Amino acid sequence: MAVEATSSANDIQSIREVVQQKVKEKLNIITTPSSKPKSFFGSIKKITGLQIEISQNNENKTIVITEETTFVNLKKSKISLKELKVGDEILAMGYMNSQNQLEAKRIVIIEINKIKNNNQIINGQVVDVSQSSPVFIIVPLNNKNNQYET
Amino acid sequence: MLKELFLAIVLGALLGFGITGGYLAINKKNDSNKNIPAIVTPASESTENISTQENVISKEEGFSLNSIEDLDIVSKENLEINGTTTSPNNTIITTLGDQIINTTSDEGGKFSFQIKLTSGLNDIKITAIDSNNNQFEKDINITYSTATI
Questions:
Q1: Which of A41, A120, A137 sits opposite B141 (nearest CB)?
Q2: What sign results for the dihedral spanned by CA atoms A28, A30, A31, A32?
Q3: Quick one: A88 and A133 in the same domain?
């Protein structure tokens, strides 16, 4: 009976150790900043010291400026942080830190409306073809209440 | 004495019924006001180009991308995109600027294709259509830069 109790205690201890190790590994993953470069893009909402807050797809993101951060304008000329202003649209490249902020290495002023992909894919049936102009009407297979003219 | 008692009972009953009747009448009037149907505007059939948001059953389901994530930065102009659809033999259509790339996923749902990026930010739209004509879409923003990051 005593031997069984001891082996059971050993099993519990080894399971505990395995669980602790797994938790430690997971915590490490969560708290260690990613080594893969990432980008943020959007319209500047606020510049406070060495932090820039942007609106990216209606979500607020924070970009941290460091000594290594370079800034480039639309004409591909180097500029400084002082030349950025609220409303400018920027693309920031760098690495994420543990607070989910981007530590930027490079910030480029861009024009988002020129980059935005407005293409649409419609899977449907042609219901009408114009005889006088290159226009036809498609009704999507999944939503017959709508129709598209192209 | 009896006469007064009888009178009191009758008057009391009249008063009680009167108050109750009035209360019920007021309530009935309020209920009939609530029964006015709301004006419903039928969905309009528009011939203009409208966003396909309502056609997309789910943006998150349908397929996954294996080799790339939104907001990634790459240093090569030609990007290979690999993914897996949740059902086999889906039609995959990808657009970026003027580029339109068509491919299909195989029996195991796997697909792969290459796309040419422009310098800077690239807004890539990937659409998968399955055999039941369900449509799934993902938008990924990939930065192509040769600068040292």
A1: A41
A2: positive
A3: no
